[in-house]
Write a structure and sequence with these properties.
Helix content is 53%, strand content 12%. The structure holds 2'-deoxycytidine-5'-triphosphate (DCP).
């Protein structure tokens, strides 16, 4: 599934991490460097699918709407993975992999997503992986403590996320850890570059610099 980057296929880097780990901040920084294309997470699409705020519905009634939400997430991330781009580097905010291995996994474990719904999402996922150009060359893992991101989530006060309990964030953290850090959950289809994203997002420049030196400059 991993293909070597070539002239017609840029080096694809997917930025991952818990909710509130600073993916958007990291990508805003990367965008300023130039010669990169950034596909930010299609959150606005999730908030407005033909007038429906699917993110809000997900949190209001997860049993009823998690399948609806995750189906649309999978579609919009597939669209991001396969968008054309002419720069050497292409950055994605999240990927179909974290959608499936972290979020759908969590919903399945908690029994929120019904087994037939999980199976349908999983069949779609397997087909996409097999048939579509969704290869990733590197994951950037913005590694955080759940307590830190929970504070950030409370502070940013996104309307849809007001009722998200700490336990949910903690458990999503553990799933991200198992997948990207300990590598004991499913497959990890590309190497992982880990960034300590606990530091205040205003002072994270050193960590970003390490990524630029060790990844971007080496591949130019
Ligand atoms: N979400 C979800 N299932 C997914 C992807 C996201 O339920 N497959 C939810 C979790 C959040 C919202 O969508 O409520 C956005 O989450 P992200 O972690 O993807 O984005 P953030 O905006 O929190 O990222 P950051 O703060 O790191 O920039």
């Amino acid at each position: 599934m991993r293909r070597a980057p070539s002239l017609d296929r840029p080096c694809t880097i997917a930025v991952e991490g818990n909710i509130g780990s600073g993916k958007s901040t990291f990508l805003r920084h990367i965008e300023k460097l130039g010669n990169v294309t950034v596909f930010s997470e299609p959150l606005e699409k999730w908030r407005n699918c033909q007038g429906h705020n699917l993110l809000d519905l997900l949190y209001q009634d997860p049993q009823r709407y998690s399948f609806t939400f995750q189906s649309y997430v999978q579609l919009t991330l597939l669209q991001a993975h396969t968008q054309k781009c002419s720069t050497k580097f292409r950055f994605l905010e999240r990927s179909i992999f974290s959608a499936r291995y972290c979020f759908v996994e969590k919903l399945r474990r908690d029994g929120i997503m019904a087994s037939p719904e999980y199976s349908v999402i999983d069949e779609w996922f397997k087909w996409i992986k097999q048939e579509q150009a969704v290869g990733v060359d590197l994951f950037v893992y913005l590694r955080t403590d759940p307590e830190v991101v929970y504070e950030r989530i409370l502070k940013r006060d996104r309307a849809e996320e007001r009722k998200v309990p700490f336990e949910y964030i903690k458990s999503l953290h553990e799933i991200h850890e198992d997948w990207l850090y300990h590598k004991r959950l499913y497959e990890c289809p590309a190497p992982v570059f880990t960034i300590d994203a606990n530091v205040d997002l205003g002072m994270i420049g050193d960590e970003y610099g390490r990524f630029e030196d060790q990844v971007l400059k080496k591949r130019v």
